[in-house]
Design brief:
With 266 residues, the protein is an alpha/beta fold. It has one domain: 3-Layer(aba) Sandwich (Rossmann fold), CATH 3.40.50. Helices cover 39% and strands 14% of the residues. It is built from 12 helices and 8 strands. The strands form 2 sheets. A 6-stranded parallel sheet has the order 3-2-1-6-7-8, with helices on both faces. Helix 2 (38-46) packs parallel to helix 4.
Length: 266
């Protein structure tokens, strides 16, 4: 299959390997595992929401360099240690429906579950702990504080602080662990990983980004992550050769594909 050809034909769906066995599932955080953008939420508490939200939107849509946007957002916010602890707790209050059940089921199936985020510790760590994701399966940015917990900068050398960083981190994971990975994310920075994973699942339940919808192997448009189980298990997923007229590339608009899965209980 020529992926480049298919990318230039947005009326066609990618044809993932129905018989692939996936070892690990890697989730983005903001607007994927949770229904908020973390730094945008902090901005609402600090009175500079408009500037920060605009920077987020531009970088997530590919209209601004991710690193440049991150530097500007962190300068505007100057977040304290207490701010990030609060954000972690808010993350836990805004988990996407189905996420906790999906992660638990994936672990039961013997799949490794990872988090990869451009956001920061300790907020990401708090969310991961809530979802039962091990500390050694967390990849995120590192922020620095002084002795009083005030903002003192962040690790600008971390690949996750720049464009293409998620692809670099995914390559490292695949080389070290020899895993066939499913990646789940919502933005263009997530889409960077597509050529390096077994399957890229776009998630539009919180924010739908057209470029992700067009290029994802699968796309979940509803605000629920439960359809992911059917995708990972290759469970009765119907992949039309062409999208019906007037329909976008969203395979799951209802829960019908996962309601009947063995082991699923409401």
């Amino acid at each position: 299959m020529n992926k480049e050809r298919d990318i230039h034909h947005p009326d066609r769906l990618m044809q993932p390997d129905r018989h692939a066995q996936y070892d690990a599932v890697v989730f983005d955080v903001d607007s994927t595992l949770v229904t908020i953008e973390g730094l945008d939420w902090l901005a609402t508490k600090k009175g500079n929401e408009h500037e920060v939200v605009e920077l987020t939107k531009k970088s997530m849509e590919g209209r601004m360099d991710f690193h440049e946007a991150m530097v500007k957002k962190m300068q505007l916010l100057a977040p304290t240690l207490e701010d990030f602890i609060r954000l972690g707790n808010v993350y836990c209050d805004h988990i996407v429906p189905g996420a906790a059940d999906v992660i638990a089921k994936l672990r039961d199936l013997g799949k490794e579950v990872w988090i990869m985020s451009g956001n920061f510790q300790p907020a990401v760590d708090i969310l991961a702990d809530k979802l039962g994701i091990a500390p050694d399966k967390i990849l995120c940015n590192q922020v620095f504080f002084d002795g009083q917990g005030n903002y003192a900068g962040f690790d600008t050398e971390n690949p996750l602080a720049r464009n293409g960083g998620k692809a670099e981190k995914i390559r490292d994971v695949m080389e070290q662990k020899e895993k066939n990975i499913v990646f789940v994310g919502d933005s263009i920075t997530d889409l960077d990983v597509k050529e390096h994973v077994g399957l890229f699942v776009g998630f539009g339940g919180v924010v739908q980004r057209e470029i992700v919808k067009q290029h994802a192997d699968y796309y979940i448009s509803e605000l629920n992550l439960m359809p992911l189980l059917a995708i990972v298990n290759n469970d009765n997923v119907q992949i039309p050769a062409k999208v019906p007229p007037g329909r976008k590339q969203s395979i799951f608009d209802t829960h019908s594909s996962w309601k009947s899965m063995p082991g699923f209980h409401r």
